[in-house]
Amino acid sequence: MRESVYIKHLRAVQKPSKGVLKGIGDDAAVVRGPKGLCILTTTALLEGTHFRLQDTGPWELGRKAVAASLSDIAAMGCRATTALVSVAFRRSTPMRFAKQLARGINDTAAKYGVTVVGGNTASGRGPLFITVTVLGDTDGLRPILRSGARPGDAIMVTGELGGSILGRHLRFEPRLEEAVYLNRNFRLHSMIDISDGLSLDLGHILEDSGVGAVLYEEQIPVSRAAYRLARRTGKTPLRHALSDGEDYELLFTLSKPQAEMLLKKNPLKVPATMIGHIRKEKGLFLKDKYGKLRRIRPEGYEHL
Amino acid sequence: MRESVYIKHLRAVQKPSKGVLKGIGDDAAVVRGPKGLCILTTTALLEGTHFRLQDTGPWELGRKAVAASLSDIAAMGCRATTALVSVAFRRSTPMRFAKQLARGINDTAAKYGVTVVGGNTASGRGPLFITVTVLGDTDGLRPILRSGARPGDAIMVTGELGGSILGRHLRFEPRLEEAVYLNRNFRLHSMIDISDGLSLDLGHILEDSGVGAVLYEEQIPVSRAAYRLARRTGKTPLRHALSDGEDYELLFTLSKPQAEMLLKKNPLKVPATMIGHIRKEKGLFLKDKYGKLRRIRPEGYEHL
Question: What is the ipTM of this complex?
Fold first, then answer.
């Protein structure tokens, strides 16, 4: 079964509902509560698919499950408040492992002001499966969707990209504080977190907004890890920055004047870089230092 | 690893948080939102532990995952609004199965006015694992906890109990409408849904309220399925009604006068029966038709 096909099916059969401002198909859902908006998202980590126990300790695993969900809330420009956790253990899982997993979950939630209010555990034959659902709060702000990018927008990204598999995929910081700051102080048009890879996640913005984009090859902030990884893989560091998943940085678009104001103020703890612009003509293009455009195909880690 | 021990650990390490009115350890969590209360719960169904694919079709499985979560919201006396679903498929799961599962989920959610707003899918080596998280709304009502039972309360239950494995475990109706009606029109002191078995779930109320109870053997509404099952198992039908899980009926306590008013009005679509009373002295007792008390031990399906 191909998951991307399945998700398309789910989106297609989804019925509109007046309380639901944004359903399946963004980083998180936006739901009208009795007197405000709720943001909801869920992350699933499956042993053998998303992690292997020989590479990832239980505390790190708990941390990652929570941090990935928080990153989805950040991608909406909102604040995270509450989490629910479900875990399917193997019957053979030792209690010590389960307790350390819980500690990873609780420590990470606490660090970002989030309370774990409930969940479920089950034990079975299978691989470990962890799902974390996080509830967020708009605090009166407008949630930032993938679908709002406009021709002429600057494309910006926080931090550096690529090579996260060398360690950052377990140590990344969800950009909650930065996202809320940006949403409060700038008029963001669209935003997503880079979980699948820059080109693939930008592709989601382009598709949902019905636009295209040009990325400036020279401006993409390639991480040192991408250079290190490139020596092993034979790919270029740029290619890693474009297609590696799990950077969990914010990718967002806003008008050029707003972007310039952001660059001038530089108020975030992590640098933000202008890496391209949105245009009306569809397709994703890379501009090299000579100004030559080359069409690229979104690539990265396809999960959902 | 014993899950009940693990959950005790999770409750013990849980830190109090001012926005959280009720965390781990009730049917659902109660969280203070910006301008109201949110109810949150999550259900997990693991193949091989909670169901077997040879007994349960994909539509029924989707139905059950949603309905069990809705029953938890009902147990709080609240309304369900929104659901998120995560599924770990086997890599070999056919698309047809996945689509029917989604249809079971969506049909059931729609029937109870709930919108599926998002989720996650993954494919792996393991057994099927489905988690459903449901968000509910108090509509200005007070959520009913397990911890409010008072000595002198009548103990009441909706519907009939026992033998659900013969079919009802896949066809049960979450008592959402009844629960909200009861919460709106009666002063309920405590409530839970019977997922693990009458005696075990009543045991949760007794433990959390610090009280004991007497059940009237003659009054317990034993279902026809319990009689049918008893013929096979050699246990008594009463024993099945006391200990079989997955009836998903409401078990609640309220003052005797309130209970009598409810019996007189009989306003619910499903009958409600007074089956015992709460008393100060701890322990769970069964009173036979001669008035003789016999101490019983809570038993049932221990999952969490």
Answer: 0.77
